[in-house]
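Run Sodium:solute symporter family protein through structure prediction, thanks.
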Amino acid sequence: MFSSSPFDWGLILLYFGFLAAVWLRLLGRSSTAVEYLVAGRRVTLPAFVATLVATWYGGILGVGEYSYRYGISNWLVFGVPYYVGALLFAIFYARRAREAALYTIPDLLERHYGRAPALMGAFTVFIGYAPAAYVLMFGTLLAAMFHLPLVPCVAAAALFSVFYIHNGGLRTVVFTDQVQFVLMYAGFIVMLAFLVARHGGLGYLESHLPASHFMWHGGNPPAAVFVWYFIALSTLVDPGFWQRAFAARDPGIARSGVLLSIACWIVFDFLTTFTGMYARAVLPHLASPVFSFPELARVTLPPGALGLFYLAMIATVMSTIDSYGFIAAATIGRDVIWRLRRDPDEARIPAYTRLGLWVAAAFAAALAVTKQSVIDLWHDLGSIVTPTLLLPIGTALLGRGRLGARWTLAAMVVPFVVTLAWVIAKSLPARGHAGGYPWSVEPIYAGLAASLVVYAAGWLLEKEGMS
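Sure, done. The structure for Sodium:solute symporter family protein is below.
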């Protein structure tokens, strides 16, 4: 057990009691499609910032592991590339997304390219954003807390993270994310304050950490850092950003909310990166760095503060699982079932989405158990999704360089197949030794190249009237 203090356990039970109360309060309440999927398009600026910040920072144990191993490089790998992606979204997409007043990314694809690209987009969104990595993290955290096997803990993680949004949809996600946002920051601020008070500041870290922990690459090859700057382009097609933009009260809130969120992520990355570096300094021989945050809390924090820090980790992960779980559910409910049934009545979309919620939770849990590596899941899924969606979405929203429906579908299918093949190839034996990427090329590079080739061919042929 993570603690013997009734106070720590009381905080955990109070949190889950709050989520149960949210679920009970909305039990049996009906919602329209616009209320259920995009919170009535009335999300205010503070709520927008809280829900986006909390949603996009679910990888807390992965961040702890990377900071423990590589120090400040964590900021250059899981921070800066994504700030750049978010900034590009704010500048080019946020206002346009809100003005479009759609529900989902496949809605955008259908408006500009037709039904087949929309369904391909729905398939890609579901595969790429069902929250498998975060379910794995929460399950790992539960397994550490209760000393239980991983598989049932992963199943429990999926269940506990989505049950309370079943009735209220995105409105419930936004409301609970605001509470989780506060817990995230409170827990890590308290942790870092205890660490500095007990051990000292930067001087302590400099004397207890390898020099590589203060290098931008953390001792890794530059190419291993650089690839994340391409994977971070997934921000431009991240349905969490699009859903929040669709739900904002007005286009100005959509743009300003993303910009303010970047500032919040910078602060939180400071807290988590330095906490991970303290973990390496305090516990230099930790057998499993993925548990660096929990183990550091165990040896550092008194009762009460320990419970708060665990709540911070739980809230950070759950805020991402519920958001992406709901996105995957909406993909099934609106973008697959409703679109395939050609149902003219949107009133049934919430019911379809509620069904999709449990399908998404089951799929995420199964994928998490199958591939038990958070960073691999981030890397592989980001590498597949980004090349598939980047150009079709960008050209649709910006109104430049659009292809016809057939070429757009080809420009989605080809990079999806190419990057999937690249990912699979790494796990296959090659000439008697462990497999690797073909020609040592990262899958996202292969996928982006394939996307560009198909787009170029389509553009030339359509221009010549040959398509």
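The two ends are 64 Å apart (CA to CA).
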